[in-house]
Write a structure and sequence with these properties.
rod-shaped; Arc Repressor Mutant, subunit A; 8 helices; 2 domains; mainly alpha
Protein backbone atom coordinates (compact mmCIF):
# COMPACT_ATOMS: atom_id res chain seq x y z
CA UNK A 1 0.00 0.00 0.00
CA UNK A 2 1.42 3.39 -0.91
CA UNK A 3 2.17 5.69 2.01
CA UNK A 4 -0.29 8.41 2.93
CA UNK A 5 1.77 11.12 1.31
CA UNK A 6 1.07 9.55 -2.08
CA UNK A 7 -2.66 9.70 -1.43
CA UNK A 8 -2.63 13.45 -1.03
CA UNK A 9 -3.03 13.78 -4.73
CA UNK A 10 -6.45 13.38 -6.19
CA UNK A 11 -5.35 10.88 -8.84
CA UNK A 12 -3.93 8.43 -6.35
CA UNK A 13 -6.93 8.84 -4.08
CA UNK A 14 -9.26 8.23 -7.05
CA UNK A 15 -7.35 5.07 -7.91
CA UNK A 16 -7.59 3.89 -4.28
CA UNK A 17 -11.34 4.47 -4.40
CA UNK A 18 -11.84 2.71 -7.76
CA UNK A 19 -9.79 -0.30 -6.71
CA UNK A 20 -11.70 -0.73 -3.45
CA UNK A 21 -15.12 0.65 -4.31
CA UNK A 22 -16.91 -2.71 -4.61
CA UNK A 23 -15.50 -3.99 -1.33
CA UNK A 24 -16.56 -0.84 0.53
CA UNK A 25 -19.94 -0.78 -1.20
CA UNK A 26 -20.57 -4.40 -0.19
CA UNK A 27 -19.66 -3.56 3.38
CA UNK A 28 -22.11 -0.61 3.47
CA UNK A 29 -24.84 -2.60 1.70
CA UNK A 30 -24.53 -5.51 4.13
CA UNK A 31 -25.86 -3.22 6.86
CA UNK A 32 -28.12 -0.83 5.01
CA UNK A 33 -29.79 -3.33 2.65
CA UNK A 34 -30.45 -0.52 0.20
CA UNK A 35 -28.17 -0.05 -2.79
CA UNK A 36 -28.83 3.68 -3.27
CA UNK A 37 -28.30 4.41 0.42
CA UNK A 38 -25.11 2.32 0.42
CA UNK A 39 -23.79 4.18 -2.63
CA UNK A 40 -24.61 7.57 -1.09
CA UNK A 41 -23.04 6.59 2.21
CA UNK A 42 -19.87 5.35 0.47
CA UNK A 43 -19.54 8.63 -1.44
CA UNK A 44 -20.06 10.65 1.75
CA UNK A 45 -17.47 8.50 3.50
CA UNK A 46 -14.94 8.94 0.72
CA UNK A 47 -15.48 12.71 0.76
CA UNK A 48 -15.05 12.75 4.54
CA UNK A 49 -11.84 10.71 4.26
CA UNK A 50 -10.50 13.06 1.57
CA UNK A 51 -11.46 16.20 3.48
CA UNK A 52 -9.62 14.94 6.54
CA UNK A 53 -6.48 13.82 4.68
CA UNK A 54 -4.34 16.30 6.63
CA UNK A 55 -5.07 14.28 9.81
CA UNK A 56 -3.76 11.02 8.44
CA UNK A 57 -0.66 9.77 10.08
CA UNK A 58 2.25 8.65 7.96
CA UNK A 59 1.44 4.95 8.25
CA UNK A 60 -2.38 5.24 8.37
CA UNK A 61 -4.33 2.25 7.16
CA UNK A 62 -6.73 3.96 4.76
CA UNK A 63 -8.80 0.82 4.35
CA UNK A 64 -9.40 0.70 8.09
CA UNK A 65 -10.05 4.45 8.24
CA UNK A 66 -12.61 4.29 5.45
CA UNK A 67 -14.30 1.21 6.93
CA UNK A 68 -14.54 3.04 10.25
CA UNK A 69 -16.10 6.08 8.59
CA UNK A 70 -18.56 3.86 6.69
CA UNK A 71 -19.39 1.95 9.88
CA UNK A 72 -20.03 5.16 11.85
CA UNK A 73 -22.14 6.75 9.10
CA UNK A 74 -24.13 3.52 8.64
CA UNK A 75 -24.65 3.28 12.38
CA UNK A 76 -25.89 6.89 12.52
CA UNK A 77 -28.23 6.28 9.58
CA UNK A 78 -29.66 3.05 11.06
CA UNK A 79 -30.13 4.62 14.50
CA UNK A 80 -31.91 7.56 12.88
CA UNK A 81 -34.17 5.13 11.01
CA UNK A 82 -34.86 3.28 14.24
CA UNK A 83 -35.88 6.50 16.02
CA UNK A 84 -38.09 7.49 13.07
CA UNK A 85 -39.73 4.04 12.95
CA UNK A 86 -40.42 4.15 16.69
CA UNK A 87 -41.96 7.60 16.34
CA UNK A 88 -44.07 6.42 13.39
CA UNK A 89 -45.12 3.36 15.38
CA UNK A 90 -46.13 5.55 18.34
CA UNK A 91 -48.12 7.80 16.00
CA UNK A 92 -49.75 4.77 14.37
CA UNK A 93 -50.60 3.30 17.78
CA UNK A 94 -52.14 6.62 18.84
CA UNK A 95 -54.08 6.84 15.57
CA UNK A 96 -55.25 3.23 16.01
CA UNK A 97 -56.47 3.93 19.55
CA UNK A 98 -58.23 7.10 18.42
CA UNK A 99 -59.83 5.32 15.48
CA UNK A 100 -60.93 2.45 17.73
CA UNK A 101 -62.46 4.92 20.16
CA UNK A 102 -64.35 6.70 17.39
CA UNK A 103 -65.63 3.37 16.02
CA UNK A 104 -66.77 2.11 19.42
CA UNK A 105 -68.39 5.46 20.21
CA UNK A 106 -70.23 5.41 16.92
CA UNK A 107 -71.33 1.80 17.46
CA UNK A 108 -72.64 2.71 20.93
CA UNK A 109 -74.44 5.76 19.58
CA UNK A 110 -78.21 5.41 19.71
CA UNK A 111 -79.71 8.21 17.59
CA UNK A 112 -83.18 7.62 19.02
CA UNK A 113 -81.88 7.91 22.56
CA UNK A 114 -79.93 11.08 21.73
CA UNK A 115 -83.03 12.49 20.06
CA UNK A 116 -85.27 11.52 23.00
CA UNK A 117 -82.82 12.93 25.54
CA UNK A 118 -82.66 16.20 23.64
CA UNK A 119 -86.45 16.43 23.46
CA UNK A 120 -86.76 15.64 27.18
CA UNK A 121 -84.27 18.40 27.94
CA UNK A 122 -86.26 20.91 25.86
CA UNK A 123 -89.55 19.86 27.49
CA UNK A 124 -88.00 20.09 30.97
CA UNK A 125 -86.60 23.56 30.24
CA UNK A 126 -89.92 24.76 28.77
CA UNK A 127 -91.80 23.47 31.82
CA UNK A 128 -89.40 25.30 34.17
CA UNK A 129 -90.02 28.55 32.29
CA UNK A 130 -93.84 28.21 32.30
CA UNK A 131 -95.98 30.01 34.85
CA UNK A 132 -96.21 27.82 37.93
CA UNK A 133 -99.94 27.17 37.67
CA UNK A 134 -99.73 26.12 33.98
CA UNK A 135 -96.78 23.83 34.81
CA UNK A 136 -98.58 22.27 37.78
CA UNK A 137 -101.79 21.63 35.83
CA UNK A 138 -99.91 20.25 32.81
CA UNK A 139 -97.83 17.87 34.98
CA UNK A 140 -100.92 16.62 36.81
CA UNK A 141 -102.61 16.03 33.46
CA UNK A 142 -99.76 14.49 31.48
CA UNK A 143 -97.44 12.93 34.07
CA UNK A 144 -99.97 11.77 36.67
CA UNK A 145 -102.75 11.14 34.14
CA UNK A 146 -105.39 12.88 36.23
CA UNK A 147 -108.59 13.84 34.43
CA UNK A 148 -109.25 17.58 34.02
CA UNK A 149 -112.24 17.45 36.38
CA UNK A 150 -110.14 15.92 39.18
CA UNK A 151 -107.38 18.55 38.66
CA UNK A 152 -110.01 21.32 38.91
CA UNK A 153 -111.36 19.86 42.16
CA UNK A 154 -107.89 19.27 43.61
CA UNK A 155 -106.72 22.84 42.86
CA UNK A 156 -110.10 24.38 43.58
CA UNK A 157 -110.36 26.03 40.14
CA UNK A 158 -112.87 25.78 37.29
CA UNK A 159 -112.69 23.10 34.58
CA UNK A 160 -112.33 25.87 31.94
CA UNK A 161 -109.29 27.25 33.78
CA UNK A 162 -107.69 23.78 33.78
CA UNK A 163 -108.35 23.43 30.04
CA UNK A 164 -106.98 26.94 29.36
CA UNK A 165 -103.74 26.19 31.24
CA UNK A 166 -103.27 22.84 29.46
CA UNK A 167 -103.86 24.59 26.11
CA UNK A 168 -101.35 27.29 27.06
CA UNK A 169 -98.75 24.68 28.14
CA UNK A 170 -99.21 22.68 24.90
CA UNK A 171 -98.82 25.86 22.82
CA UNK A 172 -95.53 26.66 24.61
CA UNK A 173 -94.27 23.10 24.11
CA UNK A 174 -95.26 23.09 20.42
CA UNK A 175 -93.34 26.30 19.94
CA UNK A 176 -90.25 24.96 21.73
CA UNK A 177 -90.38 21.64 19.86
CA UNK A 178 -91.27 23.04 16.41
CA UNK A 179 -87.97 21.75 14.93
CA UNK A 180 -88.69 18.24 16.21
CA UNK A 181 -92.40 17.91 15.47
CA UNK A 182 -91.88 16.75 11.87
CA UNK A 183 -89.54 14.01 13.08
CA UNK A 184 -91.90 12.97 15.82
CA UNK A 185 -94.77 12.56 13.37
CA UNK A 186 -92.79 10.27 11.04
Amino acid sequence: MPDTGDFHTMNLFSRFFQENQEKFLSFAYSYLRNKEEAEDLLMESMISLWENRNRWEKDSNLHALLLTIIRNKALNLLEHKQVRLRAEEDINNHNQRELGLRISTLKACEPDQIFNTEIQHIVHKALEEMPIQSRTIFMLSRYQNLPNKQIAEQLNISLKTVEAHITKALRILRLELKDYLASLLL
